[in-house]
Structure formats: C-alpha cells, structure tokens
Amino acid sequence: HQVILLLRHFFCKSFAHTIKERIERWKIQAYEKYPKGQSRGRWKHLKQILQAENFQDCPPHEPNYVNIESPPSTQPCKRICDITGYEAPYVDPRTNLRYANSQVFKAVRSLSAEQVQQYLSIRNAAVVLK
Amino acid sequence: RPITYSGADDDGRRQNRRKLSMPFVSRIRRQTDYNVFPSSIPIVIDNGASYFRIGWAGETEPRVVFRNIVQRPRHKATGETVTIVGDQDPALMKYFDCTRSGPRSAFDSNVVYQFELMEYILDFAFDRLGANGSVIDHPILITECVCNPVQSRSKMAELLFETYGVPAVAFGVDAAFSYKYNQLHGLCKKDGIVVCPGFTTTHAIPFVDGEPVYKGSCRTNIGGYHVTDYLKQLLSLKYPFHSSRFTWEKAEDLKLEHGYIAPDYASEVRKFQEGTKEAEEKTRYWQLPWIPPPVEVPPSEEEIARKAAIREKQGQRLREMAEAKRSSKINEMENELRSLRFLVNQLDQVEEDDIPSFLSDTGYASRQELESTVSKVTQSLRKARGEPKEEPDESEENTDSLNNEKYPLMNVPDNMLTPEQLKDKRRQIFLKTTTEGRLRARQKRNEEELEKERRIQLEEERRRENPEFYLEEMRAQYKEVLERVDQKKRLKTNGSNTNGNQKTGGVGRGERLSAAQRERMRLLTTAAFDRGKGEDTFGSRDEDWQLYKLMSKDHDEDDEQPDSDEAELARLSSRLQEIDPTFVMKAEEESNQTSGEAQRVRPLTEEDYKIVIGVERFRCPEILFHPNLVGIEQVGLDEMGGASIRRLPHDDGELEERLTSSILMTGGCSLTPGMKERLESGMRMIRPCGSTIHVVRAMDPELDAWRGASAFAADLNFLRNAFTKVDYYGKGEDWLRRYQIRYNNL
After folding, report:
1. How far is CA B625 from the centre of its chain?
2. Contact state of A71 with B643 under an 8 Å Cβ cutoff
3. B352-404 pLDDT, tens digit each
4. Could you tell me whether strands B96-97 and B74-75 are parallel, antiparallel, or unpaired per DSSP bridges?
5. Which of A17, B2, B322, B681 is within CB 3.0–4.6 Å of A5 for a Cys-Cys bond?
6. How far apart are CA B411 and CA B414, in angstroms?
7. What confidence tens digit (pLDDT) does each residue in A51-95 have?
8. Model pTM?
9. Which InterPro entries does the record match to this protein (chain A) (predicted)?
10. Contacts with B34 (C-beta within 8 Å, 6 or more apart), sequence order
11. Which of A63, A94, A122 sits opposite B215 (nearest CB)?
C-alpha cells in the first residue's frame, strides 16, 4: 500500500486568510496516476503525434501543423568558416570543414577527429553511422 | 514521492498523510487573493516553451511567471523525490542530489506532449495563484502553438477538465494575441504580419481584417534555444579547457547580454577579420578567475652575498683539510725516503755476500728493487709537492725507457720466447697500441680545437670588416638551411599532420608515400610473398628477425639522426641571435602534437583564462536569418514574411502593400538589438521596389501575448469562444480540430 507523503512548508510570516475554507485536497496526485515505470514510454513524441494524425487525409488547403512549415530558402547559401566565423570560400577535402585562410587551415588540420565531428555536427553535417 | 508546495501552511489536515516540514523551494510567493475573484473571472495562461505565465483576466501583469521546466531531484537526507518547477534556487539546491534529474520540459518543439510534467506545472501554477483545492472553478484561456495537433489539444483539454474540473476552456495563439493587443494600442493596423521568433520556433502569420489567416502562416524550426545552443557549442570548441564552464544557462546569459544582429553579416565579419578598431571595441572579454602560480622571488643581494660567503667558507674548510692531508702524506713519504736512502747507504757499506741476509730483514729482494722503490717514492713525493709535470720530450724519453721497461719482451723476436712469454708479449703489444691510440686521439682533439678557434677568429675579422654584408650573408644562409630542413620534414611526414587520427598514416586515395613508407611497403610485400611450400626459409638465420624491427613504425622515428642540416641550422640561429638584434627564431612546428597538448606544454598564463567573444556576438543570432548555418534547410526571418504573403490565397496587390506596411515583431528573441533594421532591409530585398515596409517591435515582446490574452478574456463575449466539458465530450475530435477562436472581439 502506498503511503502518500505530502510536504508542507511553514513560512515565517503566516498569511492571515480571512476566509479560510478547509477544502480537503482530495486530488489524486500526479505521480499516482503515472506510476514510474510507465510514464517514460507513455508519451508520444512530436514525430509520433504527427504520424498518428494522418495529415495526408486532410484536405490540402486547410492549414495544419505540417502544412505551415517554411519552404527552403531561395537565397544562395551563406558559407562561413566553421572555426572563426569569417567568410569561407574554401572547403577542406579531408574533413569537409570550411575555412577562411591558410592560418585557419593550419588550425583545421591540427584538430582531433572528435573536434572535427563536433564542428560538423553544429552544421548538421557530421558523419552519422546508423 | 511527495510533491513540494511552498507557501503558507494550509491547515487542512487529513488522515493518512504525514506532514513534513521542509524549506521551500521556490522564490515565488503564493498569491493571497484567490478567493476574491468570483467564478466568472477567467484565468489566463500563456503556456510558452520558455516561460509560463498565469494571471487573472483583465489585469495587465501576470501574477506568476516562471520558467517552464520541471526537475525531480532526490533529497539528500531523506531520499525522497521532490518536484521543483521553474528555476531552481541555488541556495537550496545543496539539499538535493541532482545528478539523475536534469531539467525536463513538457514541450517537444512547441507542442506539449508530456502531460505528466504539464500536470506538475499546472499544479504548481495554480497553487502559486492561491488556489487551495483541486477544483479550479474559473474558465481558463490557455495559449498553444499555431495549428496545434489535435491530439495535444485534446489531451490538454482532458487534463483541464478531468483533473481540475474547469468549467470552460479556450485555446488561442500567443502571437495573435500579441498582435491584437498592439493593434489596440495603435502600433499596427488590422492588416499586417506578425513575426514571432520564439524559443524553439519562429512564426510569420498574416492578418487580414483583424483575423489571422493560418493558411498563409509559416513556421521555421529555429528559435532562441538554437541560438543559445550554437553559442554554447562554439565556445566549448574554442576553449576545450574550460568547456565545463559553459553551461546552457551561462550561454543564455551571454547571449542576452552581448548578442546583437549585424545589419550586414559579410561586412561586419570583414571588419573583424581585418582587425579594425571598431572590431576591437565590439569584442568582449570574459575573464575567468585565475590565480597565478607563486612566483619565486629572485634572491636579493644580501641573500646572494650570504650564500656566497657560506660557500666560500666551506670551500676554505675543504681546502684546509686537503692541505693537511697532503702535508701529512708528504711527511710520511719523506720519512720513507730517508729510511730507504739510509738503507741504500748501509747496503753500500755491506759486502756483496751479506746483501741477501741483510735485505731479508727489510723485505726487499735485491738492490735493484730497493733502488726502484727509492725512485718511485721520490717521484710521488715530487708529484705531491705539486711540482710541474715533466716536459713532453722528457716524457717521450720516459716513454721510450718505459717502453723498454714495461714491454721488455716487445723487441725480442718470437722464436726466442717460451709460450708463456709469447702470451705476455701479445699483452704488451696490445697495451702499447691502446695507449698510443689514446695519445693520438688527444692530439687530434687538440688540433680540431685549434682549427675551430682559427675559424672563429676569421669570422670575427670578417664581421668587423663589413658588418652589414656579413649579416645579410648569415640571414640568407639561415633561410636556405631552414627551407631545406622544412622540406625534408614535409617529405617525411608526407604532408599529413595529425588529422592522421582519421586515416592514420594509411594510404588513402591519391596520397603519395614518403620514402620511408615506400620502404616499409616493400618490406611488407616481400615478407608476405607466398613462395609456396618448402621454399620459405625465413627464420633459419638470426638476422631474418631483424626484419620486424625494420618494419615497425617506430623504426622510422628512431632512425632520425641529427641531420647535418639541422645542426647547421641550430648553429646559425644561435649565431644570429647573438649578433642580430632583429632576428626572431623561427619556432619549430610541433607537427606531432595535437593542439590541446601543444598548448598545455607551455605554462598557463592569464591570457588562457580570458574568453574572447567577438565574432560570436553576431554570428549566433545570425542563424535566425540564415538557418542554413546550423543545418536547418528553411527560410530565415526576413524571407518568412515573403513566404507567408505568397501563401495567402488572394491576388490583391494592394493587400500586400497593406500587409508589409504593418509588420510587428514579438516574442522573446525580438529583443535582440539590431533585429528591426535587419528585418526591414531583408523585407525590402524581397519585395518589389518602392513598396512600403514598416517594421515595429511590440511594446513588450515577452509579456504582450499574455496581456493580449488577458484583454481577450476580460471581454464579455469570451464565453462564446470557450467550450465546456459537455461540448468537449459531445462533439468529438473533428470538431475540436476545427475549433478556432475569433479574435475580433478585442
């Protein structure tokens, strides 16, 4: 059987309640409703929610969550150096990092593999092994 | 697992519930006037991914505002799990063990999906508002995202109806409320666009005739969260040593304080690249606490003098001791010499025949022995007295005579000797050659030294004659040798420095092999060559196993002998350093160390503890306008306006004019300085020339949404827009999907 613990706080300056209704807080506590083992797997993530919605069945002219996503940009992509933030006309073929000039290139070549992957993952360009 | 409530003690005692007193874990005070409000006054909630705001309808300020996160750490002493909603109070956190409980949000992107957390949050919020029961008897207006999926909406409605017993619920979009509120105050007209960069998403919603047209809205999945995350990652990678310092909260603080949007990214970044003064002013430095290591105070003059005096005294003492010893030895030897001489004299006086018996007393076998002993003792006495060594020609004479004495058998031909004597002779030959060899080596060394001296003198002379020219020559020589050394090094490492973690020294496509690598390949192939059975004789000789040594990678590095070039380089550079005031030694590149290690080699200075935030200041908020920079393939803020206008179902050019002349920026991110100008110029770029663009920021981007909602709820017609429990259960999901409130009441 569960022993329900409720913690109350005693504040030093007690507030004087003019009308104090002693309503029993007979609310079922949240943690009872969602016992620990189940709560994690219970909630559907956004992707699953959207899948379940079956937006394909809806008429296309009605706005829904998926409809209103922005289109990809039509402007030319801005290429900035991964390390310094300057404009980067060059790409290192070995690591796929963008760099701005030869000093930055030296720095790029001296990075460890882990750092390289971290820089790339900022740009969503890291190598992901599935 | 208890829930913590902080607030005044509620006297409700019930059975089966143990009360524990605990320090309170929230700084938000509990509101006291809950009961003043009648049941018809709605409660207004702005449920945002960043902050949760709740208050009463009709007021201008929300009563309770907190960060929309939940943590459930365990109390260290009692082991019970408590729930903390909103920002934690650091003073109290020490009571809790937070290792297994990170802050969790009920949101996934901008949609609520974790209703357990939502319930904790609502519990806390209602309690802070003053509610003292589990039934909230007021209608509720709650905000949601644009086109909220019906599942999330229905779960939220269910939560409110079932758990809290709310009579009526209404859902609205926060950006729309903000726009209506600002329209009320005249900042924007009834046709316009609201651009709302939020915490995880950015929306652009057009308004026609005061109502939002969701068909034309668009949403990019970038927001303040991504900006902060970007800043955090950049700083952690730039300063890996301090990466533990860059928490998400700290990054957010930095962003709020220093972030700004450059009117044009390319030109701004060029300023920084060139290092102009303007860039210097815009760079911010964050100095981390750093204690310099205790500097050894160079000993003062008195210290040095004192130490020198002590050392001298010790030296003196030692010298005295040595003197004493020497003099005693000299005395002894003199005594011995005297006695020996006396013996010799006595011997002279004695007859031949009596010599053996006479000598047997003294211990010497014959007269020659005695005489040789005498000479030896005189020699050592002379040495002890410190007389100068004999002249070289004398020593040669001596060596000759010594030779004859030491190696008496040398000059005797072989056939006259016995086998033993032959052995002796061989030994003597050996000794002689070794001593002669040593002498020769010493002579050669002397000659070389003389040679070097002469060369140095020559150089000095040349320098004095023509200093400039000489310097030039030196420099040219140095450069030449440096190039040679560099090239050799490059060849050796094959142009691959330590990205060779990825493809370690291996042969990739198009990689040229250095000589060493070629050699190794050859060895490997010959060793692996299958000669068929019976023909493999590897291992029969011991030298075969040396192959493995040659094959190993370390062999390459061991093989490096100090090249003559490198020695030359060292000599030249030291010479140049002496005579040339402007010479700076070119530091050798540590090609084999990763950047982290190379920096740790030199002692850490104060500079290392200074975090420089220059380009990052405007690079991070730039992603709002260019989500490509973080890999999100969608339009940025400026193009979103254009995209939303394109999506509107109309063909009215005038409408577009009206839309662009009233653009409102709302949402927390729009507080970044420089956004207004950038958005304006961005819109101008994509709109036809000459169209009116007018961008205005909401009066209070963070709170306007709540204020708009509050004004909406205070309206008498609010209840027409809300739906009750009966409606909810009666009308079904489809109706709920199409449910929208009409904003034009405001």
Report:
1. 29
2. yes
3. 666 666 666 666 667 777 778 888 888 888 887 765 444 444 444 444 555 55
4. antiparallel
5. B2
6. 9
7. 888 877 777 778 888 888 888 988 888 888 988 888 888 998 988
8. 0.66
9. INO80C/Ies6 (IPR029525), Vps72/YL1_C (IPR013272)
10. B129, B130, B131, B132
11. A63
